[in-house]
Design goal:
This protein is α/β, with parallel strands linked by helices. It has helices at 11-23, 35-44, 61-69, 88-97, 109-121, and strands at residues 3-7, 28-32, 49-52, 79-83, 101-104.
Length: 122
């Protein structure tokens, strides 16, 4: 089973993500409260997929993606962005940082699971 890391500063959103993922059959989910915490956890354990917010304290999601892409174990692992940001400019910044996909909040659980299943099957 895939090991997932979700990075978001909102406890409520992390809880919603964890629940949606577990309902979709993904039970091995680790949570991080911001980019710094996410990077530390990603260095300690290799994840099959990372889902991150953009706007967080200490280290934003785009910086996190850039830092992850510098690590050999994450050079090609899928990283999904889940954020309220919807502008084409921000999506372009995400792609430039190395994001695999972009999902706009609020998310529908089936939409999230479809995206997770697609990127994990590549």
């Amino acid at each position: 089973m895939a090991k997932l890391l979700i990075v978001d500063d909102s406890t409520m959103l992390r809880d919603m993500l964890s629940y949606a993922l577990s309902e979709g059959g993904y039970s091995d989910v680790v949570e991080a409260v911001d980019g710094v915490d996410g990077l530390e956890k990603a260095k300690a354990t290799t994840f099959d997929l990372i889902i991150t917010d953009v706007n967080m304290p200490n280290m934003d999601g785009l910086t996190l993606i850039g830092e992850l892409r510098k690590l050999s174990q994450y050079s090609s692992k899928p990283i999904l962005v889940l954020t309220t940001e919807r502008s084409d400019e921000m999506k372009a910044k995400g792609k430039a940082a190395g994001a695999t996909g972009w999902i706009v909040k609020p998310f529908m659980p089936d939409q999230l699971l479809k995206a997770v299943n697609i990127v994990l099957s590549r």
